[in-house]
Amino acid sequence: MEIIVTNNYEELSRKAGEIIDSQLKKDSASVLGLATGSTPLGTYKELVMSYEKGETDYSFVSTLNLDEYVGLSPDHHQSYRRFMNEHLFDQINIQKGNTYIPDGKADNLAEECERYEQVIDEIGPPDLQLLGIGENGHIGFNEPGTSFESGTHVVELTPSTRQANARFFDTMEEVPTHAVTMGVQSIHKSKKIILLASGKRKAEAIRQLIYGERDEQFPASSLKEHRDLTLIVDREAYALVNEKG
Ligand SMILES: N[C@@H]1[C@@H](O)[C@H](O)[C@@H](COP(=O)(O)O)O[C@@H]1O
């Protein structure tokens, strides 16, 4: 595992943006695995900026997103499809047909999970997967207790995850109870993984990721076995490393 510690969120975003841009320069038909949440927002801004400067071209790029809320239509203000369109896809020259996100409104969710896993195998695996981390160690929406062997599946969100994401909704009742997510094993298919964490809120999760054992109660710990994992964390998120080790 490689660890890059930055002074702040802006520097973290720049670093992540640079790594993705260099992947695109290396292979113009790259497959990117993308994540939602507030952490990658700065990275997406960086990607848009370098695109606007003419440094990158997304004509042949494909993207695979990790997850989507169950029950939200693509244009719902909190759907992950809308998030990705607004923060990245609408601002670059990617072909919308090359952007893949699970369908949280599918009539048959079990079939949707199977379909999405096939998409990962056909389009992917991603050359590079961007990941955030939940305060409880979740990746995508793989909550504590998820099997490390899991493929794309439907999850019931834990109260703590619903609470953490409630800030984006008007009321707690509106926060979806379920999501479709790539499984831990699906995530592991990526050739390279970059996990971002910023701020004090993530410090305990980063401490546990670095010092803890591989344990299904802490989904991010599965990544310790990945062949190419880079953590990009800012000082605040790294604050408990070294201290309590
Ligand atoms: N499904 C997403 C995760 O992919 C993300 O990593 C996590 C952390 O979000 P944030 O970056 O806003 O802290 O939130 C959600 O639960």
Automatic annotation (TrEMBL):
InterPro entries reported for this sequence? Glc/Gal-6P_isomerase, Glucosamine6P_isomerase, NagB/RpiA_transferase-like
Q: What UniProt keywords apply to this chain's record, in alphabetical order?
A: Carbohydrate metabolism, Hydrolase
Q: Which GO terms describe its molecular function?
A: glucosamine-6-phosphate deaminase activity
What Enzyme Commission number does this protein have? Answer: 3.5.99.6
Coiled-coil segments on the chain, per record? none
User: Which residues constitute the catalytic centre?
Assistant: 67 (proton acceptor), 136 (for ring-opening step), 138 (proton acceptor), 143 (for ring-opening step)
User: Which Pfam families does the record associate with it?
Assistant: Glucosamine_iso
Q: Which reaction does it catalyse?
A: alpha-D-glucosamine 6-phosphate + H2O = beta-D-fructose 6-phosphate + NH4(+)
Known pathway = Amino-sugar metabolism; N-acetylneuraminate degradation; D-fructose 6-phosphate from N-acetylneuraminate: step 5/5
Is the keyword Cytoplasm in the record? no
Family according to the record: Belongs to the glucosamine/galactosamine-6-phosphate isomerase family. NagB subfamily.
Q: What is this protein called?
A: Glucosamine-6-phosphate deaminase
